[in-house]
């Protein structure tokens, strides 16, 4: 069975503003490692939306390229994503996508898609402190910043 580590990041310049998402996937089978990465952006978005988009894109890539039978761990520096998918989402779904304050859940479309992929891939969720020297988390951050810089030049 292969071990798959997924690293994700999302960010914005301004919130809302130009934003980007990125992921790096490392799949290890025996002594061989395979890497995949991707990044993209949106000229007008929010930080949280980009954090969600990064994980959605990464889990979709895992399912498409590595299948759904691996031992998958998602490493995210977003407490919003980690807490949302591991804790808050069950209550949101039970309450018809309303928060405890009886307001609609922000980014509901992204949460629904993330939930579908999480059920399919069944990853563990780990929080990693951002900007703390974790090589693959730093790589994601670099990809995000490069995408945002491209968007800033176009705007």
Fold blueprint:
Layout: E1 3-12, E2 17-29, E3 32-45, H1 47-66, E4 71-76, H2 79-94, H3 108-121, E5 124-127, H4 135-154
Parallel strand pairs: 1-4, 4-5
Antiparallel strand pairs: 1-2, 2-3
Task: Describe, in plain words, how this protein is organized in 3D.
With 155 residues, the protein is α/β, with parallel strands linked by helices. The chain has one domain (3-154): Ribonuclease H-like superfamily/Ribonuclease H (Nucleotidyltransferase, domain 5, 2-Layer Sandwich), CATH 3.30.420.10. It has helices at residues 47-66, 79-94, 108-121, 135-154; strands at 3-12, 17-29, 32-45, 71-76, 124-127. It has a 5-stranded mixed β-sheet, with helices on both faces. The longest helix has 20 residues, at 47-66. The radius of gyration is 15 Å and the shape is globular. It starts with a strand and ends with a helix. The mean pLDDT is 94.
Which residues form runs of ≥5 with pLDDT under 50?
Answer: none
The average pLDDT value, as a whole number, equals: 94
Regarding quaternary structure, what we see is single chain
CATH architecture: 2-Layer Sandwich
> Which CATH first-tier class would you pick?
Alpha Beta
Number of domains: 1
What's the number of helices?
Answer: 4
Give the biggest beta sheet. Answer: 5 strands, mixed
Q: The CATH topology, please?
A: Nucleotidyltransferase, domain 5
* Order of the strands making up the biggest sheet: 3-2-1-4-5
* Class from helix and strand fractions: alpha/beta
> First CA to last CA: what distance?
46 Å
Give the name of the CATH superfamily: Ribonuclease H-like superfamily/Ribonuclease H
Q: What would you report as the Rg, rounded to the nearest angstrom?
A: 15 Å
């Amino acid at each position: 069975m292969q071990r798959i580590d997924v690293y994700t990041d999302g960010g914005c310049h301004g919130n809302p503003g130009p934003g980007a998402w990125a992921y790096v996937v490392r799949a290890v089978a025996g002594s061989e490692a395979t890497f995949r990465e991707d990044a993209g952006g949106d000229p007008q978005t929010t930080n949280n939306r980009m954090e969600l988009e990064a994980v959605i894109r990464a889990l979709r890539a895992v399912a498409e390229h590595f299948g759904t039978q691996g031992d998958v761990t998602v490493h995210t520096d977003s407490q919003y994503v980690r807490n949302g998918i591991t804790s808050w989402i069950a209550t949101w779904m039970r309450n018809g996508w309303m928060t405890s304050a009886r307001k609609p859940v922000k980014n509901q479309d992204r949460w629904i898609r993330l939930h579908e992929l999480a059920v399919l891939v069944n990853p563990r969720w780990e929080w990693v402190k951002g900007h703390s020297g974790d090589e693959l988390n730093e790589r994601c951050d670099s990809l995000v910043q490069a995408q945002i810089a491209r968007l800033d030049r176009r705007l």
